[in-house]
């Protein structure tokens, strides 16, 4: 029952009367909105809020590096065999996963709450939420 209600709500949020989206109407932008409705990730919003991205829609490479090394890194890891990431390595992650090229060049990573893009969710799924 809960799944049916959620599914109906998702389709209603797109102003659709049936369970079908015509293929020609299923654009990348619509896919991103659809995925956001199906798989909400409030913990990612919390990460950006806690790190200090409340007033700006992005994280700097320094903030992201600190998050990965302090909050995400397992403290039991040997620092010689598995050293913490350097800002240059984090910049490579941003370059790889941030689809907004202008932000990636500046070393910023967009916040989920301030944009309709879902690139950061893919980035966090692939790199931050191990």
UniProtKB/TrEMBL annotation:
Protein name: Uncharacterized protein
Annotated source species: Hucho hucho (huchen)
């Amino acid at each position: 029952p809960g799944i049916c209600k959620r599914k109906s709500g998702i389709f209603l949020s797109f102003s659709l009367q049936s369970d079908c989206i015509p293929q020609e109407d299923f654009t990348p932008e619509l896919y991103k909105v659809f995925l956001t409705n199906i798989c909400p990730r409030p913990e990612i919003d919390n990460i950006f809020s806690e790190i200090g991205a409340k007033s700006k829609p992005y994280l700097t490479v320094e903030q992201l590096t600190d998050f990965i090394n302090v909050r995400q890194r397992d403290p039991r890891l040997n620092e010689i065999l598995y050293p913490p990431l350097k800002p240059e390595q984090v910049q490579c992650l941003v370059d790889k996963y941030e689809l907004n090229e202008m932000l990636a060049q500046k070393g910023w990573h967009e916040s989920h709450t301030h944009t309709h893009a879902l690139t950061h969710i893919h980035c966090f799924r692939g790199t931050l939420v191990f």
